[in-house]
Amino acid sequence: QICLSLVKLLFYLAHSPLGSIVLLDFQPRQFVMVDGNLKVTDMDDASTEELSCKEDNDCTLDFPTKSFSLKCSAVGKCEGINEKKNLFNAYRYFFTYLLPHSAPPALRPLLSDILNATGDLQYGINETVKAFEKVLHLYKSGLYLQKRPLLLKDYISLKGFRTVEGEDYKCWPSYSHLGCLLSIHSAEEAAAICNSQSQCQSFIVTEQRTWTGRPLASFQSSWTDLIPDTNAVVYIKRPASSGKRL
């Protein structure tokens, strides 16, 4: 969410009515989230000036760990230098820390492609926005889910119930520090997640939604202490075929 909001902001700055705007003091502390959107808190160090040049050798974009050679345009300006400076700063201050860690496994190669392409400035801001929107579409639609055996049949569902909230086993990347709370596309995906976690014996799906509209599911190591909740469904793993019964 943060990275997508940032690239939309950088897209606006690259195509603003004033021309391409560069943020000269590009630091995480210069941004704040407002209603799920990233905003710049200080525009004092913003500039529309692009570096003048006579030849391509005048257009070197230097960062502490990398340098890039840009083209000198026919009008004597370093082509796209403001856009590219913003984009590489987004890569080194935001993308490298946020993109690799929290996506479903099937989407991580696409995010890795974005990371590599922006880190080498192979993408401009237009291509970066399109790449992010493609990942978002796959994420919201569930199209990233690979065909797999149906696992929900191995669970008993109890509508109108949930378990008492409390500290349980933890997982990454959880929306709660007290337990394992993840966004899912469907109960079927939740069943696959539960099966992949040795501690998981049940999960609860409520009407809670993330910013993408995906439901949240709480994965738990037990299913005792059920309480009524008209907006929830608890799914309990069926016992192995060993004569045990619920």
UniProtKB/TrEMBL annotation:
Residues 1-19 form the signal peptide. GO terms for biological process: skeletal system development. Pfam families: PIP49_C. GO terms for cellular component: extracellular region. One of its GO terms (molecular function) is non-membrane spanning protein tyrosine kinase activity. Residues 2-116 form the FAM69 protein-kinase domain. Keywords: Kinase, Signal, Transferase. It comes from the Eukaryota. InterPro entries: FAM69_kinase_dom, PKDCC. This is PKDCC kinase. It comes from Sclerurus mexicanus. The lineage of its organism: Eukaryota, Metazoa, Chordata, Craniata, Vertebrata.
